[in-house]
Design brief:
The protein has 4 helices and 2 strands. By secondary structure, it is mainly alpha-helical. The protein has a domain of 54 residues: 434 Repressor (Amino-terminal Domain) (Orthogonal Bundle). It has a two-stranded antiparallel sheet with strand order 1-2. The chain is globular and about 30 Å long. The chain starts with 12 loop residues before the first helix and ends with a strand.
């Protein structure tokens, strides 16, 4: 699984929620954009495990939209 420069640091559940909120997106909008079910995004945002490929794609999408995940798990910036 590849996650760029901080490959060993996965975003936390609260960072996923913050990233979505920063972009003013609903859970459904994120799910539709990623072509996954709404419950999958809810699961990710609750700290559940999802496919590594989805984590990679979702992180890349948020970063392409200007979101940066703090490597210490303490938030996001945009």
């Amino acid at each position: 699984m590849s996650h760029g420069p901080d490959a060993l640091t996965l975003p936390t559940a609260s960072q996923w929620r913050a990233a979505r909120a920063a972009l003013d997106l609903t859970v459904r909008e994120v799910a539709d954009a990623m072509d996954v079910s709404t419950p999958t995004i809810v699961k990710l945002e609750a700290g559940g495990e999802v496919r590594a490929s989805l984590v990679d794609r979702l992180r890349a999408e948020f970063e392409a939209r200007g979101v940066s995940f703090a490597p210490d798990g303490r938030g996001v910036s945009w």
